[in-house]
Amino acid sequence: MALSQHCPNGYSLLAGIGADKCYRFRGNPTTFPAAEDICSEQGTLVSIGNAFVNFALQDFIASIVNNGTNFWIGLQNEGSGWAWLDGAPNNYVNWGRAQPGIDTCVSMDSMTAKWFTTECSTALPFLCEAESTAC
User: Fold this and answer.
1) CB-hemisphere CA count at 13 Å for 102?
2) Which of 32, 54, 110, 133 is the most buried (most CB within 10 A)?
3) What secondary structure does DSSP assign to the chain, as a single string?
4) Where's the C-type lectin domain (predicted)?
5) What pLDDT was estimated at residue 4?
6) How many CB atoms lie within 10 A of CB 77?
7) Which residues are CB-neighbours of 13 under 8 A, at least 6 positions away?
8) Are 54 and 48 in contact (CB under 8 A)?
9) What are the residues whose beta carbons fall under 8 Å from the beta carbon of 114, sequence distance 6 or more?
């Protein structure tokens, strides 16, 4: 009998990405530090390891919001370079034109899937990621 994967309440598995991660879009705009705190209750702000995941997440967000909006992802410049909050390797980036800029937090454009440095005190929606569990 095959095990099925279960997500924390409010989170969803995304078809094709893999069964080990669950995602939850939070539409209530907040700052990067506050988004990080909210996501830490069950996971972290999302990390994006490759183009396939980047565009799958863009599709997921497009199914929720019907207009182009930027939302927080879990990439931040910690002084020594860009790093994912969950410690995942930083092997993939999808910077928008003239990016990265001078700000230290990163948002993703839901229409283009491009990433932009954004002032951390800006209030934006955000995408949380959590581990799924076998049941």
Assistant:
1) 0
2) 32
3) ----EEPPTT-B--TTT-SSEEEEEEEEEE-HHHHHHHHTTTSEE----SHHHHHHHHHHHHTT-SS--EEEEEEEE-SSSEEETT--------B-TT-S-S-SEEEEETTT--EEEE-TTS-EEEEEEEE-EE-
4) 18-129
5) 66
6) 15
7) 5, 7, 19, 21, 22, 132
8) yes
9) 94, 95, 96, 97, 99, 108
pLDDT at residue 66 above 90?
Answer: no
Q: Which of 49, 4, 43 is nearest to 25 (CA)?
A: 43
Q: What is the arithmetic mean of pLDDT over 40-60?
A: 94
Which structure tokens are listed for 99?
């990016």
Q: What is the dihedral of CA 83, 88, 92, 95, to 10 degrees?
A: -40
Amino acid in the structure at residue 86? D
The answer on pLDDT for 95 being more than 70 is yes
Q: Which two tokens stand for residue 135?
A: 């049941």
What percentage of the chain carries pLDDT values higher than 90? 73
What is d(CA 58, CA 78) in angstroms, rounded to the nearest whole number?
Answer: 25
